[in-house]
Specification:
The chain has about 220 residues and is of the alpha/beta class. It folds into two domains: about 100 residues, Rossmann fold, CATH 3.40.50.170; about 110 residues, 3-Layer(aba) Sandwich (Rossmann fold). Strands 3-2-1-4-5-6-7-11-10 form a nine-stranded mixed beta sheet, with helices on both faces. Helix 1 packs parallel to helix 6 and helix 5 crosses helix 6. The chain starts with a strand and ends in an 8-residue tail after the last strand. Bound molecules: 5-O-phosphono-beta-D-ribofuranosylamine. 5-O-phosphono-beta-D-ribofuranosylamine binds next to helix 1, strand 5 and helix 6.
Length: about 220
């Protein structure tokens, strides 16, 4: 059975597209039940519509306060009865009602090797800090900013000529490989999020030329 996803976005949606591409290629045993955005202008919504995916827009300013928006977002996502929620470029912190309703069923992708460089400027912060490796992390979402148990990470080099944009582009290529793999590993039961994070296989390996830990997607459960 394909794992039913709700994907939350705010912008471009390149990770959403990567997940859908891997699903369509039969390499990610999931299905996207709904794509939810807090911004009606998010480019990822057009991608979703083109691919026949259900969408919902829950803008903050359409609600009288943060608590009302939290409730509306929770209801919009719950209506699709997802087994896993993926925040992929969703630019809002999830509120307590959402986190309680979907506890340990929410994962996020972040463009840095957490716990370094949480927040919205991760590639610029990595360059400013002078690190020679950065990458992406997929982690379980808790109430903090890009905090919560780390599931998997991929490393990429930070090159001397890099700008924040060029580094972010390289990191995104790693995200597009890693995130669908993590989703597939959860679908296959190789990774359990509940009652607490456990990784069935923890083999250090290299995938797609990137140092990735754990190595995912090359074994039956
Ligand atoms: C990604 O780099 C993700 O790590 C960060 O926001 C970006 C979203 O990109 N949280 P996209 O919308 O998936 O293209």
């Amino acid at each position: 059975m394909a794992l039913k996803l709700a994907v939350l976005i705010s912008g471009r949606g390149s990770n959403l597209a990567a997940i859908q591409r891997e699903i369509e290629a039969g390499r990610c045993h999931a299905q996207i039940g709904i794509v939810v955005s807090d911004r009606g202008s998010a480019a990822g919504l057009a991608f979703a519509a083109e691919h026949g995916l259900a969408t919902a827009v829950v803008p903050m300013r359409a609600h009288p306060d943060r608590a009302a928006w939290d409730r509306a977002l929770t209801e919009a996502v719950a209506a699709s009865q997802p087994e896993l929620i993926v925040t992929a470029g969703f630019m809002r912190i999830l509120g307590a009602p959402f986190l309680e309703r979907f506890a340990r069923r929410i994962i996020n992708v972040h463009p840095a090797l957490l716990p370094l460089f949480p927040g919205t400027r991760a590639p610029a912060l990595a360059i400013g800090a002078g690190v020679r490796l950065s990458g992406c992390s997929v982690h379980v979402v808790d109430g903090g900013m890009d905090s919560g148990p780390i599931i998997a990470q991929s490393a990429v080099p930070v090159l001397p000529a890099d700008s924040a944009a060029s580094l972010h582009e390289r990191i995104q290529r790693a995200e597009h490989a890693l995130l669908p793999r993590v989703i597939d590993a959860i679908a296959r039961g190789a990774i359990a999020l509940e009652p607490e994070l456990s990784l069935r296989d923890s083999i250090l390996g290299s995938a797609d030329g990137m140092l990735t830990f754990p190595q995912l997607g090359d074994g039956a459960p």
